[in-house]
Design brief:
With about 475 residues, this protein is an alpha+beta fold. It has eleven helices and 17 strands. The strands form three sheets. Strands 10, 11, 12, 13, 14, 15, 16 and 17 form an eight-stranded antiparallel beta sheet that branches. A five-stranded antiparallel beta sheet has the order 5-6-9-7-8. Bound molecules: flavin-adenine dinucleotide. Flavin-adenine dinucleotide binds next to strand 3, helix 4 and strand 9. The site of flavin-adenine dinucleotide (FAD) has 31 residues, from strand 3, helix 4 and strand 9. Belongs to the oxygen-dependent FAD-linked oxidoreductase family. This is FAD/FMN-containing dehydrogenase.
C-alpha cells in the first residue's frame, strides 16, 4: 500500500485556504487602463475593476482562480474582440479570453491584462443537411447539445454541460460519449473565426492558412481570440449509457475487470472509471452520499451493438450500489458523469497512461486511498479507437498512442492548497512508471508545463507559427508557446 504519510515534509509548509487568500492570485498594482483609452462604440461593454458587471465577467467556475484584469471587454461581437485586441496591442498588454473560467490559469490574469469575456456571444446555427454547427465563443456544451439534438444530431461534447465549446475545442476536446468512435473534437472542425494579434478577423480553414489551422486546433489560446467555430456533427440520437457505482472496497476487483474488459470492446464503446469520494449532499441519491465509490461510466452510441451484453462482464464483478446504465436520449448525456455545475475550488493534475497493468491498478487504488490530503477524484478514461488515429487534416494533438487519460482532483470545501499540491505531486510520481510523460491538453493544470502537451517536433512547429502570427506574444496568459523562428 502506498503510504503518503511516509513523505510528509509538506505538512510543515504554511497552510493556505482557497477562497481566503487565493493561490495563484494575480499581482495587484496601480491601474494600467484609464477610462479615456477604452474602446468606444462597442456592442458589449468595457469594464474597469470598479465598474458594475466586472465581478460577474471575471467570475470563474474554478474558485481557486482569481482573475483580476485591468480591463474586461465583455464582447458581444467579433468587432468587440477586435477592439480589445487593438487596445492590448497598443498598450503592449497581454490579452486573454474567458468563457466560463473552467481552466486553471498557469499565468495569473492581473491588472496589466485585457480580458475578453465571451459570455454574451451565444449564437448557435445548425446546418442539419451539412451536419455542421457554427458556435460562438460564449456557448457552453449544455446549450449546444440541447440545440443540436433537436436536429437528430450530436456533437463531440465533453462531460460537463457548463464547459465552453470553444475553449474545449481549442484544447483538443475529449468526448466521453463519442470520442472513441470519432476522435477528438479538434479532429472535426471545419473552420475557425479568430482575431489574431494584428487585430484582423480571419476565417481560418485547412485551405486558407493550413499552418494556423493546424496550430489553433490544440494550441489552446496561443494564436488569437476565437469568436466562433464550425464543427462537424454526427447522426446520433440515443446512447446506451450511464454509470455503475460500486463500493470502494471492490475498487481493485472492479479496476482489474475494467482493465481486461477494455481490451474487448468495439470503438463505439467509450468509457472511463473513477475512484470518487462523493460529497455528502442531498442532491445525491442516499446510498452514494458521503461514500467512497468506484464508478464506471459507459457510453455506447452504436445501435447495432448489443450494448447491454457488452456491459454485462462489468455488472458481474460485484453487486453495484447504483446502476444507471440504460438507453437514453443523447440530449441527456451529461447525466453520465453528472459533473458538478456550480462553481467550486478545484486543484488538479493530469497525465496520460501508456498502459494499465495490475500494478497500475494497485497504484491508482493506493493514490485514491492516500491518507494525507487524498484526492476526491482519480479518473482514467479509455483512449484508443479513433483517438489514436490522425484526422484527415492533422492538428497539434501529439499523444495519439496513449492508452488512458489520468486525472486527479481535490474539489471544494476548505482546501489546504499546499498539502494537496504536495500530495498530488506524490500521486503523479507514484504513477509515473506507467505515464507517457504527456498530458491531455484539455486537462492540463497549472502544475503541468506547456512542453508536456506536445512532442518536441510539434512544439517547434507551433513556436515557429507563433513567431509568424504573434511575435510579441500578446496571447501569453496561458500554457504559453514562445515565439521562435
Ligand atoms: C467539470 C469539468 C469537466 C470537464 N470535462 C471535460 C471533458 O469531458 N473533456 C475534455 O476534453 N475536457 C474537459 N474539461 C476541461 C475543459 O475542456 C477545459 O478546461 C477547457 O479549456 C474549458 O474551456 P472553457 O471555455 O469552459 O474555460 P475557460 O476557463 O473560459 O477557458 C479556458 C481556456 O481556453 C482558452 N479560451 C477560451 N475561450 C477562448 C477563445 N474564445 N479564444 C481563444 N482561447 C480561448 C483560453 O486559453 C482559456 O484560458 C472539463 C473541465 C471541468 C472543470
Amino acid at each position: 500500500m502506498y503510504d503518503d504519510n511516509a513523505r510528509h515534509e509538506v505538512q510543515e509548509e504554511p497552510s493556505q485556504k482557497i477562497g481566503e487568500s487565493g493561490w495563484g492570485q494575480p499581482p495587484t498594482g496601480p491601474p494600467h487602463f484609464t477610462r479615456e483609452e477604452l474602446p468606444v462604440a462597442l456592442q458589449g461593454r468595457a469594464l474597469l475593476p470598479e465598474d458594475d458587471g466586472y465581478p460577474e465577467e471575471t467570475r470563474t467556475y474554478n474558485l481557486r482562480i482569481d482573475v483580476r484584469p485591468g480591463v474586461v471587454i465583455a464582447a458581444a461581437s467579433a468587432r468587440d474582440v477586435q477592439a480589445a485586441v487593438r487596445l492590448a496591442a497598443a498598450k503592449g498588454s497581454p490579452i486573454a479570453a474567458m468563457a466560463t473560467g473552467h481552466a486553471t490559469q498557469p499565468v495569473p490574469i492581473g491588472p496589466d491584462a485585457v480580458l475578453v469575456s465571451t459570455r454574451a456571444m451565444r449564437d448557435i446555427t445548425v446546418d442539419a443537411q451539412a451536419r455542421t454547427a457554427r458556435i460562438e465563443a460564449g456557448v457552453r456544451w449544455g446549450e449546444a447539445v440541447a440545440e443540436i439534438t433537436k436536429y437528430g444530431l450530436a456533437p463531440l461534447n465533453g462531460a460537463s454541460p457548463s464547459v465552453g465549446v470553444v475553449g474545449f475545442v481549442l484544447a483538443g476536446g475529449h468526448s466521453p460519449t463519442l470520442g472513441r468512435a470519432h476522435g477528438y473534437a479538434a479532429d472535426h472542425v471545419n473552420s475557425i473565426e479568430v482575431v489574431t494579434a494584428d487585430g484582423k478577423l480571419r476565417t481560418v480553414t485547412a485551405v486558407s492558412d493550413p499552418e494556423l489551422f493546424f496550430g489553433l486546433r490544440g494550441g489552446k489560446g496561443n494564436f488569437g481570440i476565437v469568436t466562433a467555430v464550425e464543427i462537424e456533427l454526427f447522426p446520433v440520437t440515443t446512447l446506451y449509457g450511464g454509470s455503475i457505482f460500486f463500493p470502494a472496497t471492490s475498487a481493485t476487483a472492479v479496476l482489474n475487470a475494467y482493465r481486461e474488459w477494455v481490451k474487448t470492446v468495439p470503438e463505439s464503446m467509450s468509457s472511463s472509471v473513477a475512484l470518487v469520494r462523493m460529497p455528502d449532499v442531498p442532491i445525491l441519491p442516499e446510498p452514494l452520499r458521503g461514500k467512497q465509490v468506484v464508478s464506471i461510466r459507459i457510453s455506447c452510441a452504436d445501435p447495432s451493438e448489443n450494448a447491454a451484453a457488452l456491459v454485462e462482464p462489468l455488472r458481474a464483478v460485484t453487486t453495484p450500489i447504483i446502476d444507471t446504465v440504460q438507453e437514453m436520449p443523447y440530449a441527456d448525456c451529461a447525466s453520465i458523469h453528472s459533473d458538478p455545475v456550480d462553481p467550486t475550488a478545484v486543484i488538479e493534475r493530469a497525465g496520460l497512461l501508456r498502459v494499465l497493468t495490475p500494478e497500475t491498478v494497485d497504484a491508482l487504488v493506493a493514490v485514491a486511498e492516500g491518507t494525507t490530503a487524498p484526492p476526491d477524484l482519480v479518473e482514467i478514461r479509455h483512449l484508443g479507437g479513433a483517438f489514436a488515429r490522425q484526422p484527415g487534416v492533422p492538428n497539434a494533438i501529439s499523444y495519439r498512442d496513449a492508452a488512458f487519460t489520468l486525472f486527479i482532483a481535490n474539489i471544494g470545501g476548505a482546501i489546504d492548497a499546499y498539502a494537496i499540491d504536495a500530495a498530488q505531486a506524490r500521486a503523479i510520481e507514484r504513477l509515473r512508471p506507467w505515464c507517457t510523460g504527456y498530458t491531455l491538453l484539455s486537462f492540463m493544470s497549472d502544475a503541468e508545463t506547456t512542453e508536456q502537451g506536445y512532442t518536441p517536433e510539434v512544439y517547434r512547429r507551433l513556436a515557429s507559427l507563433k513567431q509568424r502570427v504573434d511575435p510579441f506574444n500578446l496571447f501569453r496568459l496561458n500554457h504559453n508557446i514562445r515565439p521562435e523562428a
